[in-house]
Amino acid sequence: MRAALVTGAGQMRVDEVARPQPGPGEILLRLQGCGVCASNLGPWSGPDWMQFPTEPGGLGHEGWGTIAAVGADVAGFSVGDRVAALSQHAYAEFDTVAADMAIRLPAAFGDRPFPGEPLGCAMNIFHRAEIEAGQTVAIVGIGFLGALLTQLAAGAGAQVIAITRRPFALDFARRMGAAETIVMDDNWRILEDVRALTNGRLCERVIEAVGKQWPLDLAGELTAERGRLVIAGYHQDGPRQVNMQMWNWRGLDVVNAHERDPAIYMRGMREAVDAVLSGRLDPDPLYTHTYPLDELGTALDATRDRPDGFMKALVALR
């Protein structure tokens, strides 16, 4: 099979390697595609702790496709089933995965892409935010995740204020149901705009979905007394400082909405399937850029640089 390997900082190649075989309790997935995750950008930059080359297909964990073979002791899946999976080598034509780390995709989805892991993350973050009808919810950062959360929060009856730096992303937020949009350019002006929109109350829920220091600072300032600040951004570039005096004074609930328990990941993925089937979630417009496996490096660069019109990159394998 063909599989991508990252060979150094900003460098990759595609090799012909042996196709894996499923062991007991595993399925062999013939991948149709894999989403490109921002968490790949740390390894792609070539930090000292990385070992190159990566394993074939390594870093890819947002894959979906059809089952090509099943190992011993696998129940509930058959060859030909279309599934999304939580595997770790999905930048390749095939990958093995434990059967309990895969979910069957409904026939109603047809051939539409379904990167299950990030869609499940959005559902899990939405649960941790405890958003209710009538609340004002600020979402700081409208990328793929922020746009999905905008749609979920608006669908729950909340008034969503979307805050991001790219005009293109603000347009997307409005399409996803945001009641108000604000350009993320000046901290004081943003705070004053939100005060005006909320009659000085600020926001019961604020979701930070960028993963940088300033958006985290801003998100805290936008959170009302006894409100909930939800950290959804992936803070991967070093320690953070927080205004603990303000957080303490306002009595904020602060939630780090990242999950590591595979069972919770799978629950979120199943709920994402239900949300797409019911129409509560429509991620398809957010898949803005698709690349072949040979151009994984270009896909990673686009995920890093976020050119105009970019929301989410997919690698197409079939």
UniProtKB/TrEMBL annotation:
Family statement: Belongs to the zinc-containing alcohol dehydrogenase family.
Keywords: Metal-binding, Oxidoreductase, Zinc
The UniProt record lists the keyword Cell membrane: no
InterPro entries named in the record: ADH-like_C, ADH-like_N, ADH_Zn_CS, ER, GroES-like_sf, NAD(P)-bd_dom_sf, Zn_alcohol_dh
Segments forming domain Enoyl reductase (ER): 8-315
GO molecular function: oxidoreductase activity, acting on the CH-OH group of donors, NAD or NADP as acceptor; zinc ion binding
Protein name: Zinc-binding dehydrogenase
Pfam families reported in the protein's UniProt record: ADH_N, ADH_zinc_N
Cofactor: Zn(2+)
